[in-house]
Amino acid sequence: MLSNKSINIIAKLNKKELRQFEKFLLSPFFNSNKKIIRLFRAIKKYYPAFSSDNFTKEIIYGSVYGGEKYSDTKFRKLFSDFYKLAEKFLVELNLENGKKIYNTLLLNELELKSIDNLFESKYKDALEYVTRSEFSVTDFLQLHDLKWQYSDYNISRGKQDKIADDIFRRSEYLIFYFLCDTFITINDIKANEATFNYKPTVNLPQIFLDNLNLKNIYKCIEENNFEHKEFFSLFYFAFMMNKDPKDNFYFFKLKKLFEENVKNLSRTFSMNFVILLTNYCFEKLKLSQSDELEAANEELCDIILKNKIYQVIDGYFVVLVFFNIFFVYLRNGHLQKSRNLLNDYSKFLHPSQVRDVQLLGESFILFEDKKYREALELISKIKAKLITIKIYMRKLILKLDYELNYFDSNKENLDNFRHFLKNNNQISELGKKVLMEFVELFNELVNIKKENFDDFKCRHLELRINKINDLFDRKWFQKKLKER
After folding, report:
1. Residue 289 included in any domain
2. Peptide bond into 48 cis (omega under 30)
3. 3-state secondary structure of 148
4. Domain boundary among 77, 97, 117
5. Which of 13, 75, 329, 431 is the most exposed place for a label (fewest CB within 10 A)?
6. Does residue 246 contact residue 158 with C-beta atoms inside 8 Å?
7. H-type alpha helices, 14-137
8. Which of 101, 148, 151 is nearest to 126 (CA)?
9. Domain that holds residue 89
10. Rounded (10°) angle between helices 471-482 and 319-331
11. Could you give the CA distance from residue 466 to residue 458 in angstroms, rounded to a whole number?
12. Are 385 and 353 in contact (CB under 8 A)?
C-alpha cells in the first residue's frame, strides 16, 4: 500500500478542501505539470482511507504514465513536486482563513511597490480587523508588528513626525505580549512539574518575574488608558490567582473580568481561562467545602454553554468537558440542569459519542432519583468504546450494585475493574493509581456495610475518603457513611 507525506496531507483535508486543492493544481499560476493533475486524480479515488490493496505505487504510476515501465526515481520526483504543491496549498488555506497574516503580507508588498494611497487605507483596515475580531495574546504581537510596519513606511518617506505616538504604542504592545506569554509559561511550568515532576535547571521566566515589581507595573497600567489593558489584566489576574491560591480575591477578579470580555476572546483562549478558573475551584473544594466556590464553578459551566466555548476541537463538544459540567450540576443537586444539558447539548458531541453519553447521563440521573434498577437496565445498553465513558460506567455500576445490596455482583465487578485497569494502556500510570484507590475504598465500604458499619473502620475509611480527588465520588462516599 502506498504511503508518503503527500498522502498524509490529503487524508486530513475535508471534502471542500479536497475540491479546492484540485482547483489549486489546475491553476497555471501554481502548477504547469499535467502529470501532477493526473497523479492527484488517481490517488483521489482512494480518499479518505487510502487503504485499498489496489493503492500501490505501480497502479498509481500506471494511471499517470500509461503503459510505461515503472521507474521509482521518476515516481519519487513526481511525488516530491506534488508534496511541495500540497505544502503551498496548506499555506494558501491559512492565508484564506488567516486575515491577520494576509494583511501583514499585503502591507509589505504595498510599501515595497510604493502604492501609498492603498497602504494608508489598508493599514487602518488591518488595525481595525485585529481590534474587532476575537482577541488572543498573539494579537499584541500582531499590533506591535503593524506599528513597526507603519513606522518603517513613514520613516522611508521622511514623515517621522507622524510616528511619535506609534513608538510608544508598539513598545506597550510588546510589553503586554511578553508579560502575558510569561504568565502563561509560568503556569505551564507548574503544571508540568506537578504532572511529570519536570524541573528546569534554571527557571528564567520565574527569576525574571521575581525581580520585577509586577504590582507597580499593573497599578500603572490600571490607572492609565492603555489600549486593550483589560486583556492584559486577564492574564495578570490568572497569574496572581495561581501564585497565591489561599486568597480568593484574584479568582473573583478574574471571573468577573472574564465574564465581561468573553465575547471578545477567541474560543481557545476562553476555554483556557475557563480551565484555569474551574481548576482553581476544584483544588480549593478538594481542601474544604465552599458554597461560594461551588456556585462560582456552576456559573462558569453556564458561561461555557451560553458562549459555546465548548466547540474548540473540530467544532465538537469535548466529551470530558461535557461530563465535567454534567457532574457539577449533578453534585449541586440540579437534576433539571443535568437533563437540559443532555437534551440540548449532547447533539454537539461527536456523532459516535452521542448515544452512549445520553444513555450514561440518563443512568446517572436515574441513580440520583434512586431508581436503581432502571438505571442498571439502561446502562446495560451502552456499548462504549471511549475510555472516559467506560470508566464512568464501571463506577456507576458499582454504586448501583451497592445500593441494591448486590454484594456478589459488587465483588465480581470490583475484580473486573482491577483487571481493566491493570491491562489498559490508554490510562496513564497516575490515572490508574487514582482509580485503583477508588476501587480499594469501594471494596472497603462494601465489606464495612456487610459487617453493619463497625465504628472504628468507618472512622478510618472516612479519613481516606476525604482525600479523594473526584468531588462527585467523594460526596457519594461521605453520604453512604453518614447513612449507617
Report:
1. no
2. yes
3. helix
4. 97
5. 431
6. no
7. 15-26, 34-44, 57-65, 72-97, 99-112, 116-132
8. 101
9. 5-97
10. 30
11. 12
12. no
Q: Which three cell numbers stand for residue 92?
A: 494558501
Amino acid symbol at 91:
V
Report the Cα 373 to chain-centroid distance in Å. Answer: 37
- The tens place of each residue's pLDDT in the chain, 484 residues long, gives 677 899 999 999 999 999 999 999 999 999 999 999 999 999 999 998 888 888 999 999 999 999 899 999 999 999 999 999 999 999 998 887 778 888 989 999 999 999 999 999 999 999 998 888 778 888 999 999 999 999 999 999 999 888 999 999 999 999 999 999 999 999 888 878 876 778 888 999 999 999 999 999 999 999 999 989 999 999 999 999 988 888 899 999 999 999 999 988 888 889 889 989 998 998 888 888 889 999 999 999 999 999 999 876 677 898 888 999 999 999 999 999 999 999 999 999 999 999 999 999 999 999 999 999 999 999 999 998 889 999 999 999 999 999 999 999 999 999 999 999 998 888 888 889 989 999 999 999 998 888 777 788 888 888 889 888 888 899 999 998 888 7
| Residue recorded with cell 436515574 | 366
pTM above 0.90, yes or no: no
DSSP per-residue string spanning 212-224? S-HHHHHHHHHHT
Q: Are 85 and 24 in contact (CB under 8 A)?
A: yes
Q: Which amino acid is at 42?
A: A
DSSP state of 87: H
Based on the domain organization, do 79 and 32 belong to the same domain?
Answer: yes
Assign 331 to helix, strand or coil. helix
Nearest to 243, CA basis, from 212, 198, 200, 288:
212
Residue carrying C-alpha cell 460506567 = 393
327 vs 335: CA distance, rounded Å:
10
Number of domains in the chain: 2
Residue 203 one-letter amino acid: N
Domain boundary among 156, 178, 200: 178
